[in-house]
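thread from #wetlab-drylab

HS: before we spend reagent money on co-crystallization trials with magnesium ion, can we at least see a predicted complex? here's what I'd submit
DV: go for it
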Amino acid sequence: MASTLPAATGFLAAVQCDGGRSPGAFPAPRGADPAAPGAVFASAGPRAVIKARPGGPGLDAVLLHSGAPDAAHAHRRGRTVLLAGELYNRDELLTLLGAQAGPVTDADLLLALVDTYDLHAFRLLNGRFAAVVADGGRVLLATDHAGSVPLYVSAVPGTVLAATEAKALRTAPVGRRITAARRVRRLPGTHQVPAGTVLEIGVATADCTDHRTWAPTPARRIMAEQEATEAVRLALDRAVRARTGPDTPLVVLSGGIDSSSVAALTAHHRTGPVDTVSMGTDLADEFPQARVVAEHLGSAHRELTVHTDDLLRRLPHAVWAAESLDPDIIEYLLPLTALYLRLEGPGRRILTGYGADIPLGGMHRENRLPALDTALAHDMATFDGLNEMTPVLSGIAGHWSTHPFWDREVLDLLVSLESGLKRRHGRDKWVLRAAMTDLLPHETVTRPKLGVHEGSGTTSSFSRLLTDAGVPGDRVHRAKELVVQHLFDRVVVDGRHPDEVATADVVQLVADALEHDAL
Ligand code: ATP
Ligand code: MG
Ligand code: MG
Ligand code: MG
């Protein structure tokens, strides 16, 4: 199956001294073979077992792949590269390697770059990936600039385990404390590799050194209006092109400026068809606004209505996929989870407008510039670990999602623009709106921001579920936090399948606990 998806979208890898045991050698959930379908990942899709014995510590891995697992790993002279995800600046990267026969796969390319630049290769990449490099006695664990493919690690002397889902490490031996990385709730010794970071770990000792490969710039650039809008248009156009494969792309479209921009640029550079899909509930939708865009672009458009009861039943699935403990993030991701689960196979390449509001201050609904830059600095300092961009969200339904607004070049540009270009002429996200005026209807370009959690009624229906269970109005947010924690404990820590976890039971448990607590 030649695929429009990346060769691999996830992995569980073990690098071990003494020739190595297979990843199955640490106690697997319910004694299952980790290579068995469904054993460890929320992400759907076939698994392949990889064994590399380069001399020195061996690497064993279970790869979650899309039909060509051998394209996701590369080996040379005792060095092995494993890559989940994809690179978006291949052409640039290839220029660094001179005239030698060009690497074919992204994994080959990464291996060649590591041969030349060692771990500094990761400073060069614009991509959506998590990677493992086994190299003699050390292991490199690397995230992309945004940590958009989550990566977890558990290391003891002699064994380094790494996985793209925390639940895959739930039965791992208790790992050493890694001070450079965030601990995972109730999984002792399991850590999340920070965004834009390479962890360099000695296999024999489990000693770890961290190397930052990206950080959001704190400086702001001054540009004339036209220069700024042209720069945004060019960067976003490149990001969209790099993310569209040979097959018909699918854009998840709300009719807001972010997803409409992505849909418009996708349609603009393609001669072939573009698909769009919009999600709503019985309580709320943005169908009319999305339809305006779909008609303007001539996309093959679908509307999917999810009943609110079904939406809320998917809360365990959203937590299972995102492995996030932030109730606000789960509220944003829940409608998308429900949408992805309704998209039948085969696996699609999905583009979203997700993430634009962070660098553009889109959530910021007032005119004062200092507050916009303060919010932006805060959001850029705290996004890591929320797993907002995780591909597992669509991966549970066998799809691959990618977010052009968090392309490294787009993000660097948007973050750096002085805030007066973001809030201007009384509009939010002005520079993006101005950049897109020729490709979208006027009403779309000027449409005020509406969050996905608002447009689908998710926030209000989740709140309602809690107040109906007896949670006082002023404790609803706390209750949401507790619900998400309980769900995390069940579907990540305890490894249960979300179909076995009832939202209603967890909500009642939390409501009762809060009532007790209040007495
Ligand atoms: P704006 O932020 O200006 O409202 P937007 O709606 O495109 O623009 P968000 O509301 O931040 O962006 O939502 C994030 C992303 O999630 C969207 O860009 C889109 O890809 C997807 N999305 C949001 N709402 C829907 C929906 N109702 N149906 C399908 N996809 C949606
Ligand atoms: Mg948005
Ligand atoms: Mg919106
Ligand atoms: Mg938005």
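DV: The longest helix spans residues 225-243.
HS: ok that's useful, forwarding to the group
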